[in-house]
Amino acid sequence: TSNNSLPPNNNNVTVEDDRTGLSIPTLKRAIADNLFYIQGKFPTIATENDYYMALAYTIRDRMLQRWAVTVDSYLQSKTRVVSYLSAEYLLGPHLGNNLINLGIYDRVKQAVEELGLDLEHLIAQEEEPGLGNGGLGRLAACYMDSLATLEIPAIGYGIRYEFGIFDQEIRDGWQVEITDQWLRYGNPWEIRRPEVTYEVKLGGHVEHYTDSHGHYGSNWVPDLVVKGVAYDTPILGYQVNTANTLRLWKSEAPESFDFQAFNVGDYYGAVNEKVICENISKILYPNDEQIQGKELRLRQQYFFVSCSLQDMIALHLRRGGKVENFYETFVVQLNDTHPAISVAELMRLLLDEHELDWETAWDVTTRTFAYTNHTLLPEALEKWNLDLFASILPRHLEIIYEINRRFLDEVAIRFPGDEGKLWSLSLIEEGEEKSIRMAHLACVGSFAINGVAQLHSELLKETVLKDWYELYPEKFSNKTNGVTPRRWMVLSNPRLTELITSKIGDGWIKNLEELKGLEKFADDGAFRKQWMDVKLAVKKDLASQVEQQQGIKINPESLFDVQVKRIHEYKRQHLNVLHIITLYNRLKQHPDLDIVPRTFIFGGKAAPSYHVAKLMIKLITSVAEVVNHDPDVRDRIKVVFMPDYNVTNSQKIYPAADLSEQISLAGKEASGTGNMKFSLNGALTIGTLDGANVEIRECVGEENFFLFGLTAQEVEQLKSSGYNPWDYYHDSLKQAIDQISSGFFSHRDGSLFQRLVNSLLYDDRYLLFADYHSYIECQDRVAEAYRDKDKWAKMSILNVARMGKFSSDRSIKEYCEDIWKVKPVPVELYDLCPDGE
Ligand code: CBF
User: Fold this and answer.
1) What is the value of pTM for the model shown?
2) Which fold would CATH assign to domain 77-93+128-481?
3) Which atom of ligand 1 has the smallest separation from the CA of 456?
4) Do residues 401 and 389 lie in contact, with contact meaning Cβ atoms separated by under 8 Å?
5) Is the ipTM of this complex over 0.95?
6) pLDDT less than 50: residues of the chain
7) How many angstroms does the Cα of residue 670 sit away from the middle of ligand 1?
8) CA 568 to CA 571: how far, in whole Å?
9) Domain boundaries, the chain
10) Max CA pair span of the chain
11) What is the distance in A from the centroid of ligand 1 to the CA of 755?
12) 673 CA closest ligand 1 atom index
């Protein structure tokens, strides 16, 4: 049917309609067509995955014209393009989201049903691209959605990892990591661009020369050259024509090299080098907020940054620009320090490849980059061992030395005689092991620096970037994170979306502040009932999923108390466990105690080499084992660990939560974005004054937020006055800790959790003990509040109504106005291939 010579069929469907048409008969034909011509299958033998693929191609076809026109209009226009550089994109499945953004979800559902299929089943076939670890990668994905929805010319650059974040299984209560093979059945959403490739040098040495005109130059002689190949994925905005590009790089061996090796008979050498090249984009490092300083990771960072900058320069020149004006075409946002090597790479390209002088090259560079910091944790601040760095990027080391020399000269003038300042601001950390401080490279090379929540941005200025703030106060600002309501409401919570829309229309999907309109219904009894009915229906869905997958029966009427996020000591999942044990002990002591039934739901991955985090998972599952099977509990408490927490699973979890656990130690969580997704879906928060919790509480009202714990300031005071966990080790806390260490939850194996218990008793870096009593008292208030369902409904409605600020659209608008200085460029559809051309 794709053959041009065929006449239109009796539905009057033309060839063009087959690729773009949106009527139900056309969609059905297109699906059947793709099933046959792309999958090579026909209905009697097609699997559900074949149908998913056929549908995915059908939808991609409908995005292609928008995509091509968007690219063309950016090439034609003279407006600045935002380039988002991120080593991670945690996109989640595309199909459902694209149907929402195209506005054809219901229509496609019907078309698919008429073919005897179920749309939700097909959507569930998609293997999500898990190209990120957690919040940082998911933020990048939300920002791509908002950039397109706001019609901002933008391109996202990253790495096409062959293996994304590992799949998690729980065996005998322990996390087991399984390789993520997201590409195993192919990826219908991407297009390989074999013509868009760049060479990336690695290793070797640098030669210096003076040419016949007396110009001094540097020639980097690498010992390995890798090829980066572009894979493009369209990112469609909501109800607009804009489809921006996410360009991910795959590393390959250059075509030429293996022949050279064969010629000299080195078969092993040739194959080995090919493997080395391909390894660069093989796997995502599974550490969230922890650096490991591994050579391959530096190679990955440099690889994608170099390809991306070369690509941007090529596009800029193609638009008729001169390298000196590069920053007029692109503004480049560095998503944390992972792409910070960009500063040295752009300098290298401008100096060595485009022969600009140092001053001009530095001027271009510092007008190009802006840097977002995402963490205050010292262990997450990237540093590269100098020798390692020199062995991979010898030319960049020279450039960094020169940047540093000039920069420290400036510092010496500003702070005469202040050796300490030179030491603390230097790009090089001295000491036994010299290293390069990537955050400092990002700061010196960027014209803007921002944190991701008000508190975080303030703490940055007072702590890790204090000296930088003193030097360049004008560079600093805050850009509080946000989440896209398209994925995190419309797609994941259709019931609530419908209820809200029935009251205030659907304007809120693009302008989240319109949720304010719900406030006036918060006192309407009938609406509260509808609200709680929706919540109950969603909880029932989750309950049946849990029962089906794990055989655990949970009571949908119980309070769903949820903590889903990466497992980390600073996020304090073990504080939550201490509360569970406390409740359990109360029930054991007073079996007839009238408690509010609760279901505790956990989910999250631990970095494979982070032993204490893995032990925290084992603790949760061990406590679950005891509590869930104790007849005295009589099902009043249930504990569930949902395996393989990812975007797909999270879309079912956030909508079902009553209570959102945001209990990190104040001053440790930069922002959090899960906190926003929960509250947007009507969960109430129990939380500390950390990250964006502070702003969420301000917005929803302190009476609609369960606050506990020390403030960031109090944490510092307590630490500096000499914190002693033993001061808090009594009563119910002592009982819980002693049970864990005596083996009560581990078949009398007292040694199992000893490392975890000792880390609390003898260090307690994250002050669990100090916050325990306040947490328990607050949880008791939560339980009391939940008894009054009507009041709870009101609080829940008000939470949603007041979450307007936390749309990623708002964040992106702030970046556009304050940092990027870019404006929307609406895309008009036009025919790119008029007849006869
Ligand atoms: O800013 C996005 C998120 O980034 C992190 O996940 C990170 O990797 N540094 C932080 O931990 C989150 O607080 C933050 O929301």
Assistant:
1) 0.97
2) Rossmann fold (3.40.50)
3) 13
4) no
5) yes
6) 1-10, 836-837
7) 6
8) 5
9) 1-6+19-76+94-127, 77-93+128-481, 499-806
10) 94
11) 27
12) 15
